[in-house]
């Protein structure tokens, strides 16, 4: 094989590799993979503390917005009222929140973080920030900020389409995405589970 032919073949292979490398990815698949990775890392931190993503969302809402009535907390986090009752019962058993009578309405309760709840929130927030750093390790600081800005615009656009305030909808958007991921994972497990053979006795 002549040198010219080898160079020509190498050039063709290199161009083919470049075209393959530049093949556009499906944005939906990338977002799903990234979200699943983020939630997997988050659960590693939450599970040892007996927290679920929903429980963490409640703690964050209270830490960032202060005490509020249960109904307002359910609305802010996009959680069904009945589900919120069970969720608060669980957090109260862990001494992370407490219910206090509302001075302006004795029929209502204000939900507060306990001292342990505040400490847990600070510790978990720090741990999750470290996990986010692990996930975003391939990106430098400007790229991370750019990614956050772009994703915020996507989330805000979706909230606008749904007719809800962008920032107020963020927690409920995240929980809806979690539910969708959990449902997809459950369906995948059911499809891949091998059928058991009944034993003849």
Q: Count up the helices.
A: 8
Give the tally of β-strands.
3
The 3D shape can be described as globular
The name of the CATH superfamily of one domain reads Winged helix-like DNA-binding domain superfamily/Winged helix DNA-binding domain
What would you note in describing this structure?
With 201 residues, the chain is mainly alpha-helical. Among the domains are: 50-135, Orthogonal Bundle (Arc Repressor Mutant, subunit A); 139-177, no CATH class. Helices cover 69% and strands 8% of the residues. The chain is built from 8 helices and 3 strands; from the N terminus they run αααβααββααα. The protein has helices at 3-21, 27-46, 53-65, 70-77, 81-93, 115-135, 141-162, 170-192; strands at residues 68-69, 97-102, 105-113. The chain has a 3-stranded antiparallel sheet. A hairpin with a 2-residue loop joins strand 2 and strand 3 (105-113). Helix 2 (27-46) crosses helix 6 (115-135). The longest helix has 23 residues, at 170-192. It is globular and about 60 Å long. Residues 3-7 and 197-201 have low confidence and may be disordered.
What is the topological layout?
Layout: H1 3-21, H2 27-46, H3 53-65, E1 68-69, H4 70-77, H5 81-93, E2 97-102, E3 105-113, H6 115-135, H7 141-162, H8 170-192
Antiparallel strand pairs: 1-3, 2-3
Helix pairs in contact: 2-6
Structural descriptors:
Arc Repressor Mutant, subunit A, 201 residues, disordered N terminus, 3-stranded antiparallel sheet, 69% helix, mainly alpha
What can be said about this structure in brief?
It is built from 8 helices and 3 strands; from the N terminus they run H-H-H-E-H-H-E-E-H-H-H. The protein has 201 residues and is mainly alpha-helical.
């Amino acid at each position: 094989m002549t040198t010219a032919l080898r160079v020509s073949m190498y050039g063709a292979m290199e161009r083919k590799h470049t075209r393959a490398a530049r093949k556009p990815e499906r944005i939906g698949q990338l977002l799903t993979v990234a979200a699943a990775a983020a939630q997997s890392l988050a659960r590693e931190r939450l599970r040892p503390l007996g927290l679920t993503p929903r429980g963490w969302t409640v703690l964050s809402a209270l830490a960032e917005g202060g005490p509020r009535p249960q109904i307002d907390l359910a609305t802010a986090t996009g959680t069904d009222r009945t589900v919120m009752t069970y969720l608060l019962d669980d957090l109260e058993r862990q001494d992370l929140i407490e219910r206090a009578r509302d001075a302006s309405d004795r029929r209502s309760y204000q939900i507060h973080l306990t001292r342990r709840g505040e400490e847990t929130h600070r510790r978990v927030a720090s741990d999750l920030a470290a996990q986010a750093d692990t996930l975003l390790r391939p990106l430098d600081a400007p790229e991370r900020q750019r990614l956050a800005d772009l994703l915020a615009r996507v989330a805000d656009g979706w909230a606008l389409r749904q007719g809800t305030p962008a920032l107020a909808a963020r927690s409920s958007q995240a929980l809806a995405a979690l539910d969708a991921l959990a449902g997809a994972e459950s369906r995948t497990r059911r499809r891949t589970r091998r059928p058991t053979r009944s034993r003849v006795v």
